[in-house]
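retry 2 of 3: previous attempt timed out while embedding manganese (II) ion. Reduced batch size to 1 and resubmitted. Inputs unchanged:
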Amino acid sequence: MSKTYSIAVLPGDGIGPEVTIQSIQVLLTAAEKFGFQLTFTEGLVGAAAIDVTGNPYPQETAKLCKESDAILFGAIGHPKYDNDPNAKVRPEQGLLAMRRDLGLFANLRPVKTWPALYHASPLKNELLDGVDMVFVRELTGGIYFGEPRGRTENGFKAFDSCVYDKNEIERVSKVAFELAQKRRKKVTMVDKANVLATSRLWRETVTELAKSYPDVELDFMFVDNAAMQLIRNPRFFDVVLTENMFGDILSDEASMLPGSMGMLPSASIGSKVGLFEPIHGSYPQAAGKNIANPFASVLSAAMLLTQLGELEAASAIEQAVETCLAEGLVTEDLGGKLSTAEVGNELIKILKP
Ligand code: IPM
Ligand code: MN
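retry 2 succeeded.
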């Protein structure tokens, strides 16, 4: 009997469904080729879930996720909530609730460059050669979740709290060090220790933990400097370890190295089931037009297979993406002429057993 994995599929909002369907087809082709089975069960999340249930992360979706081997996630967000500061529920709350509920405390965001896409990057080509880094972003703590948060009664004041405890820092830092051991063995911790108490706790905790990883080089960088170095000398970075909000901001910045947000996959891990999603958002302007770049989703699907231990299949998918890039079989954001679905079909042709 070949192995069977159950995948929860949460297409979500905007372009989420149209890129996710390409990933499903690519995954099925890879499964057939490499001899394993996949089952897909769809669940509601985000604005799509609010429309049906009033809740961006309904109970049934939570249950489905917990019973699955992995989660393939599309995108979340809808413009009708963005300009309504009084909206009681927001699609994004679904994603945040889900990260917390599933214990997904480490978010891995690999950033590399492809020579075939240098033309799409706003940076000079010589800066892009050999760029290959991974962000390890803490995902369930910090200012995204800290208490107290809210508004005073008169509405004239609002506050958010950045809170971290040692245990939260340690568990995500271990992920970073272990990842570095499989790569160039360097961790750069990004913080604001010259200003923030939480950053000083991070430094102290990570310095202590680093003693257990003598083969890994550790250095520290202030976040403002890191924002500059990402553009000035992106080759410097191997594993970038950072807290929730700094990781959010810097990883969007770093997406300009490969040239498009449409190229960056991510994995959120921490408990039994991992969640795999493109870092791009729901891109509502493109929704339903069949023009969205499916590579970030497809590369997230490859990360999903890596997590399940199907390494050959994962690397075959990554190679298929590279072939498409090299041959210009890409969507218009990358200067190509193909639709979302046509790129999916090309990937399947390249992968076909
Ligand atoms: C991301 C997104 C989310 C975040 C939003 C949608 C809540 O920007 O995954 O990077 O800020 O974490
Ligand atoms: Mn973000």
